UniProtKB/TrEMBL annotation:
SMART domains: REC. Residues 3-119 form the Response regulatory domain. The modification 4-aspartylphosphate is found at residue 52. SUPFAM superfamilies: CheY-like. This is Response regulator transcription factor. It comes from Paracoccus nototheniae. Pfam families: Response_reg. Keywords: DNA-binding, Phosphoprotein, Transcription, Transcription regulation, Two-component regulatory system.
């Protein structure tokens, strides 16, 4: 079981993630905007952050960059999610310090496998 923070503004995706994470026995919380996300990560120290790229106010790229700039958050794994899933976006996310990248809509098996890899 892991502590997971979901940062996702689309309710339908957040609902699907809520279902999956609950079923898999993970503790999780969600925020729907990028604003305040880094502060929440600092406060809660989740094992994994499921981070949308396109967020209101602050982008996922900015959030992962800020998390990686803080040595105290070195242990926090970040899995970025994007509707685009292009090679350029993936490269940018990984270059900024994301631990993994998954395109939306994702297969549950693919998401599970990527989470297991990052949490393992």
């Amino acid at each position: 079981m892991a502590d997971i923070l979901v940062i996702e503004d689309e309710d339908n995706i957040a609902t699907a993630l809520d279902f999956l994470l609950t079923r898999d026995g993970h503790r999780h919380d969600r925020i729907a905007t990028g604003k305040g996300a880094v502060d929440r990560i600092r406060e809660t120290r989740p094992d994994l952050v499921l981070l949308d790229v396109m967020l209101p106010e602050v982008s996922g790229y900015q959030i992962v960059q800020d998390v990686r700039a803080d040595p105290d958050l070195a242990g926090v794994r970040v899995l970025m999610m994007t509707a685009r899933g292009s090679v350029v976006e993936r490269r940018k996310g990984l270059a900024l310090g994301a631990d993994g990248f998954i395109a939306k809509p994702f297969e549950l098996a693919e998401l599970r496998a990527e989470m297991a890899r990052l949490l393992g």
